[in-house]
Write a structure and sequence with these properties.
This protein has 599 residues and is α+β, with helices and mostly antiparallel strands. Helices cover 32% and strands 22% of the residues. The protein has a 15-stranded antiparallel β-sheet that branches. The longest helix has 20 residues. The relative contact order is 0.11.
């Protein structure tokens, strides 16, 4: 049976990441970067598309698993009739070549183990040539090469284009496997001691986690989400990918399958807020700097997403040889939404840079001039329709959220100039723009009959993005229009603790067939909106219900299927974990932060 999305755990090295199932199989791994071709793609196909399973012979699924302390080292326990073993999976942080390390440790008795590895480069389409060399199994195909070794050496043979191993582990014994990728034209990679690498990796994560300034309720969930965000960071540039996967479906058997291995500007303000609030100013500065590099240039060319280093070309293509997760096709790489116009991103960028300035991050001399340039372009375009926050593939509309974020851009510019008189700029100009946007949204984006803001001008559809009005300051929290919007979204888009982005029933708003699950980030936004409008107990209850939807190692996908009671969409999803961190901190209050983090 195909594992559920929540059956996977995450390991990574801050440049790429792998998904490890409860059955002991690594079913997804792109090397050497998040956005590279996958060498294990069974997640989106079958075992012949690449995987690496280590498990006791005859065992189907593990007994239990969890992360070692506050780290990204995954420990999986298998209890059998002859004994118990622990499999330790991790990827040490690296300067050059990536390593996947799997250490099998005997806990009690003696257990017969097997390892089967099928390397398939280029998203499962290329079978490499495998040979023996200097104690390794070496797989080569085109530009890719992978070296596999075990310590101590175990019985290994080739079978049906796979590399198989058989060995026993008794109490106190350890067997380590190391898989190293490197360019095929390069010399053999240097040997790394897996046991020393494990100690270093645990120490690195312990040091990083100790820097978290949050000491309030739900700390375990908060730190696990922050570790996940760190794991989704591309270390060399500071960019944070939305997810390490592509094409995990928003509807089982449906076509809403997208590549999320890129960096979205929509995440910028919320990501910065989470990192800064938790005391991770170094990571916040790296993300801010990535943002400044990515958006540099003509403001008319601002994109909604970029590559790991700020690449602009992310062409979308389909991979027909992969059947898709549970036959949810097509499988896509790249993302055509990169060409869309989403006017909200101007507000998100300007708000992010305002937040970075107020947090005390070292100011960049050119940052303010860049913001003025973005504002000047937005001033002349905010009245135009766009594709909106959710990247609809239907016709452009006047989305309320996009207009509100235009208001945010002007509002933050006014406050920045008021707080920093030395900066150049005309605050009256931006006040006039701010007032004009506010006036138009209240006139055209509000339905007085139902006392709610709508998805777009003239529409009766609702949109969970309007919940963000509560946190932008567009209206005071006690404004009846805001409270009415929260109640309307909850009634029409809510189901228990979950909230859909918008209605797909009988509507062609997004230009796609089928439906999707409830969007987890929107569900956290609902908790935030309830809290801001004075309903703290309702907010806390909703938040705790959302926490219960995490998998056994604390991870969340993009969406949740209320009918099938399962996670949906790309996994793990940065947006979901950002929402978790933000809501937990809002519920706890500022007194739960250590003094040096609050300033």
């Amino acid at each position: 049976m195909t594992p559920r999305i929540e059956d996977y755990g995450l390991i990574g090295d801050l440049q790429t990441a792998a998904l490890v199932g409860r059955n002991g199989s690594v079913d997804w791994l792109c090397l050497p970067r998040f956005d590279s071709g996958a060498c294990f793609a069974a997640l989106l196909g079958d075992e012949d598309n690449g995987h690496w399973r280590i498990a006791p012979k005859g065992a189907e699924t593990c007994t239990r698993r969890g992360y070692a302390g506050e780290s990204l080292v995954l420990e999986t326990f298998w209890e059998t009739r002859t004994g118990t073993v622990k499999v330790i999976d991790f990827m040490p942080q690296r300067d050059r070549e990536p390593d996947v390390m799997r250490i099998i440790e005997g806990i009690s008795g003696t257990v017969e183990m097997s390892s089967v590895i099928r390397l398939r480069f280029d998203f499962g389409s290329v079978v490499p040539w495998v040979r023996r060399s200097q104690g390794h199994r070496v797989a080569v195909a085109g530009p890719d090469s992978a070296w596999l070794r075990s310590e101590p050496p175990v019985k290994t043979w080739g079978q049906q284009f796979s590399t198989c191993s058989s060995f026993t582990v008794s109490a106190g014994e350890k067997v380590a496997f190391v898989l190293t990728w490197h360019p095929s034209h390069s010399p053999r990679p240097e040997l790394v001691d897996p046991h020393q690498a494990l100690e270093t990796t645990l120490s690195d994560w312990a040091e990083w986690s100790s820097r978290c300034k949050y000491r309030g309720p739900y700390r375990e969930a908060v730190i696990r989400s922050l570790i996940t965000l760190k794991a989704l960071t591309f270390g060399p540039t500071g960019g944070i990918v939305a997810a390490p996967t592509t094409s995990l479906p928003e509807e089982i058997g449906g076509v809403r399958n997208w590549d999320y291995r890129f960096c979205w500007l929509r995440d910028s303000t919320l990501t910065l807020g989470a990192l800064i609030s938790a005391g991770y100013l170094e990571e916040a500065a790296a993300w801010r700097d990535w943002l400044l590099r990515a958006v540099a240039g003509d403001p008319a060319d601002l994109q909604i997403m970029y590559g790991l280093a700020g690449e602009r070309r992310l062409p979308e293509a389909e991979l027909p040889w992969l059947r898709g997760y549970e036959s949810s096709a097509p499988v896509r790489i790249g993302n055509a939404a990169v060409r869309q116009r989403q006017l909200d991103v101007y507000g998100e960028v300007i708000d992010s840079l305002r937040l970075a300035r107020e947090a005390g991050l070292d100011d960049k001399p050119h940052a303010w001039n860049l913001q003025l340039s973005l504002l000047g372009f937005l001033e002349s375009t905010w009245r135009e329709p766009d594709e909106g926050l959710w990247e609809i593939r239907g016709q452009r509309r006047h989305f309320v959220h996009s207009k509100v974020m235009a208001w945010v851009a002007a509002d933050r510019a006014v406050h920045t100039l008021e707080n920093n008189p030395a900066l150049t700029g005309d605050p009256d100009r931006w006040r006039a723009m701010r007032d004009a946007v506010h006036r138009e949204v209240c006139e055209k984006g509000y339905d007085p009959e139902r006392n709610t803001f709508t998805q777009s001008y003239g529409s009766r559809n609702l949109d969970a993005a309007t919940l963000l009005i509560a946190r932008t300051g567009f209206l005071p929290p006690d404004d009846p229009r805001l409270i009415g919007t929260v109640d309307a979204v909850r009634a029409e888009l809510g189901s228990g603790c979950l909230v859909r982005r918008y209605s797909t029933d009988g509507s062609s708003i997004d230009g796609l067939p089928g439906s999707e699950g409830a969007f987890l980030a929107c569900s956290f936004w609902m908790a935030d909106a309830l809290l801001l409008t004075g309903r703290a107990e309702e907010a806390r209850d909703l938040f705790e219900q959302l926490l219960a939807l995490r998998n056994d190692v604390g991870l969340l996908a993009e969406e949740y299927d209320t009918a099938g009671c399962r996670q949906l969409g790309n996994f793990p999803q940065a947006f979901s974990h950002i929402g978790l961190v933000g809501t937990a901190m809002a519920l706890a209050g500022e007194d739960t932060l250590e003094p040096d983090a609050a300033g």
